Amino acid sequence: MVEKYKPISPKYPHILHGGDYNPDQWLETPEIIDEDIRLMKKAHVNVVSLGIFAWSKLEPEEGKFDFSWLDNIMDKLAKNGIYVILATPSGARPIWLAKKYPEVLRVDDERQRQLYGGRHNHCLTSPIYREKVRIINTKLAERYKDHPALIAWHISNEYSGECHCPLCQEAFRQFLKNKYGTLEKLNHEWWTSFWSHSITDWSQIESPSKKGEFNLHGLKLDWKRFITHQTVDFFKNEIGPIRRITPNIPVTTNLMGLCPEYDQWEMAKVEDIVSWDNYPEWHNDYQKTWETAAATAFSHDLNRSLKGGRPFMMMESAPGNINWRNINKLQRPGIIELQSMQAVAHGSDTVQYFQWRKGRGGFEKFHGAVVGHSGSENTRIFSEVSKVGEDLEKLDAVVGTTVKPEVAVVFDYQNLWAIEDARISNCESMNYTKTCIEHYTPFWKKGVPVDVINEMADLSGYKLVIAPMAYMLREGFAERIDKFVKGGGTFVTTYLSGFVNDNDLCWLGGFPGPLRKILGIWDEEQDALYPSDKNSIVLNEGNELGFKGSFDIKDMCDIIHAEKAQVLAIYKSDFYKGKPALTVNNYGKGHAYYIAARTGTDFLDKFYSSIIEKFGIKKTIDSELPEGVSAEYRTDGENDFVFIMNFTEETKTVKITDQYKNMLDGNPESETIQIPAYGFKLLQRNAK
Ligand code: GLA
Ligand code: ZN
């Protein structure tokens, strides 16, 4: 049974629509603030994120607070029916704080303390910074705890980066003491006898640096885990007073898509709601628009999966353009609403933009905004945003609904960190993230819902689990896969899987280590292919997948022995000509597939189409979707809300077989629907 979740706030159980609002940049012109409110209402904005970078306006001098301007704005917003996601300001600190307490400034890996400037650059450990953050957060929570506008907390902003100061070094050593207990154990797990790096005193341990320790992979992996731990710990410090004073107001911190700076799964455990900032590079010259859409969908699905299907928030997205890439192309008409509906389709209960109004100065003055420097509401962007707001008002029934996919793709940050250090076969083209997206895309194309999980996830409930390049097998992962396949599940993995354990020590006794038995293969050697090297895999006649042909391979491939597995395809040339390249092992009640070489998407499309058919995996709609059209759904158990979206530059035709109602105009939808370029249909049907 599919669970329906509570809305973000009971105060306003609707899809939230709004964005980052920086009135602190406009305090000298109060008339602009009044105008903003008029325009927000016109654009159907019902929420703003406030005060994200406002620390120097809230505490202009140490211990001297000024909340009057914020009181005024919060009151005005409340009076006008606009809710507030109130930020804690730790993402950027005032100058006075850095000057008086230099320990709050971050130290880089070359042990250089940074000067004041920028943002997102505080020490993660500094007790002074933590204390200052706690003080201002306490004041904010106490002051606004009963404010009618407050519906959620936006903690800091896009936590990222690392600090190598002495305080962080000491905290790192403590983290390691807790993890390993003894130096003997640590030396073993880090394999420090390599190049004579044995550690004889805890104080000798230093964070990784290109100018220092950079070759002990176990140390580097633990440093990443420490950064995750310290970031989450910093977050816990921030939310301490907030949870105490406002226990019923949810907290979130905006994540950055697939950014591997820290393990977002650990943050998701602590926050109440997941939120993330979505900036696809639409209309680029290296992908089709729908490929950008598929990659974006992958991120949305990850964010929904972070809390087991709970709706998330798209905390930021660009209205029109961004400004931080070198080429900042305008979003073509229709994209703002299409990317907004895509977020909702995958489980977002909000559509929020960065930013409401363009500032006059500074780095982001030309970043897309709902209101530009003209101040006019008669703009393309303003009317596109208003249309989004109008349409979202018709989607109340979608709030809190989710989807329970039968398919999961494993994308694991810790595995990614390990792969980046792997120094095996083709180190130039590891492309772990890209590969995971390539294994996800065949499902997106067919409208099959997918969860994006990590290696620690519970696998019960899935029919198909795909773990591309599962190089590092984290604790218990192989056992969970074993149980999953024995119980009847289908598992797919690839080349470069099952090489190291949780601490980056190679499995002994033959790769893919503990997956060997499940897959029924032994991976003996790993080859790298230069771009000019040519080889392919050839499907065996009469294989169980039901398709034939030869498919080019690239970048890397493994030379394997089918011990128990059945061979479905073989290599075409080179000294491993005729050896297995694709296998399946019947294991318990289930099946375990192994793809030994990196292929193109031509093979993946065919392979997964066959798997979808063979194992009866459910699609959002029965008919085939034309290229570039995606179909997703959310359900409350009684009704399915189906989003069909056209991410191409042409009109597309889609056939539907069930009885549908158009959610925007209430009319029934006929069997053949036309969707214009960058258009979409929001449909409702009885739950299937
Ligand atoms: C990030 C930040 C915002 C803003 C946008 C610009 O996501 O969180 O403050 O800088 O980028 O795209
Ligand atoms: Zn530090």
From TrEMBL:
It is an enzyme of class 3 (hydrolase). Residues 20-395 form the Glycoside hydrolase family 42 N-terminal domain. One of its GO terms (cellular component) is beta-galactosidase complex. InterPro entries: Beta_galactosidase_C, Beta_galactosidase_Trimer, Class_I_gatase-like, GH, Glyco_hydro_42, Glyco_hydro_42_N, Glyco_hydro_b. CDD domains: A4_beta-galactosidase_middle_domain. Its EC number is 3.2.1.23. The active site is at E158, E316. The keyword Transferase does not apply. Zn(2+) binds at C123, C163, C165, C168. Residues 406-617 form the Beta-galactosidase trimerisation domain. One of its GO terms (biological process) is galactose metabolic process. GO terms for molecular function: beta-galactosidase activity; metal ion binding. Pfam families: Glyco_hydro_42, Glyco_hydro_42C, Glyco_hydro_42M. Residues 628-684 form the Beta-galactosidase C-terminal domain. Keywords: Glycosidase, Hydrolase, Metal-binding, Zinc. Substrate binds at R119, N157, W324. It catalyses: Hydrolysis of terminal non-reducing beta-D-galactose residues in beta-D-galactosides. Belongs to the glycosyl hydrolase 42 family. This is Beta-galactosidase. It comes from [Clostridium] cellulosi.
